[in-house]
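Annex B. Sample input.
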Amino acid sequence: MRVINTPIEAQYRVYYAIHLNHYSYPWGGTTYNKLLVTEYPNYDLSSVTFTQASTAKFLYPRLVGNPTYVDGVAEGHFFLWNSHAADTTTINSYTVTLIKTPNVSDNETTLGIDAETLTANNTIVAKGTLCLPIYMNIDHIKLSKNDKIILQIDYTDDGAGTVNIIHDNDSTLEDIKIKIPYKDT
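Annex B, continued. Sample output.
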């Protein structure tokens, strides 16, 4: 009898990033208004459309481990917006990091990282947007029953415009989307 080994596909969970004004979640010594959600909440909730900073961290407020493993390619995208009225800006690089953390201050572990240097198609005109892809390999890392996940986005630019990380609570836009691969063993 011939046995064919077929790979076991990971179960993907899709997350979206938002910022809610009237909700915060304390975890690991930090309080988060920026959250990962599996579906968008009601659009009428008070939220922030963008963050004018070169770094943003989004926490998934539920525990995902029991335990479970992250294994495979996490993929998605995120949008940057140049809110400047006249100046064009150039994005030089970006890094997207997937992190696990227990409810302990300064105890974060990197699950995966996508670090890119951009040399073409990286200019954002005034009042324009740029969508950047996320692809990160994650090699069978355990999430314990007490771990939560964080998605961190960082970028560098030439400083000419006013760059923002977009995270609108609008299901028709999907500003930040990431598919994370999970396996039970």
